[in-house]
Amino acid sequence: MDVRTIRKRKHITLKRVSEYLDLPIPVYIYYEIMGIKLMHTDILIDLCDLLGIDYHML
Predict the structure, then answer these.
(1) Cα dihedral angle (31, 37, 42, 48), rounded to 10 degrees?
(2) How many Å apart are CA 57 and CA 30, to the nearest integer?
(3) Spatial distance between the Cα atoms of 4 and 36, rounded to a whole number of angstroms
(4) Rounded to whole angstroms, how far apart are CA atoms 46 and 18?
(5) How far apart are CA 34 and CA 10, in angstroms?
(6) What is residue 34's three-state secondary structure?
């Protein structure tokens, strides 16, 4: 399952994610489209904490 699907199922908005990660919305959208694995590890772990998933699942 991809991050976008998980985010939408949990009704987490792009704005909330971008504020939590301290990233502009277009940058987060880029990562969501191009691949979450491109993110810096610390940001990826924070995203997984927000979504409530283990980052090894990605």
Answers:
(1) 80
(2) 20
(3) 10
(4) 11
(5) 21
(6) helix
CATH 1.10.260 fits 3-57, yes or no: yes
User: For 11-58, how does the pLDDT look when each residue is reduced to its tens digit (9 = 90+)?
Assistant: 999 999 999 999 999 999 999 999 888 888 999 999 999 999 988 877
Return left, alpha or beta for 22; rule: phi > 0 is left, psi -120 to 50 is alpha, else beta. left
**What are the CA-CA distances from residue 35 to residues 15, 25, 27 (Å)?**
19, 15, 12
Predicted model pTM = 0.82
Joined tokens for residue 19: 């504020």
Q: Which residues of 21-52 are buried (b: 16+ CB within 10 A; e: fewer)?
A: bebeeeebeebbeeebeebeeebbebbbeebe
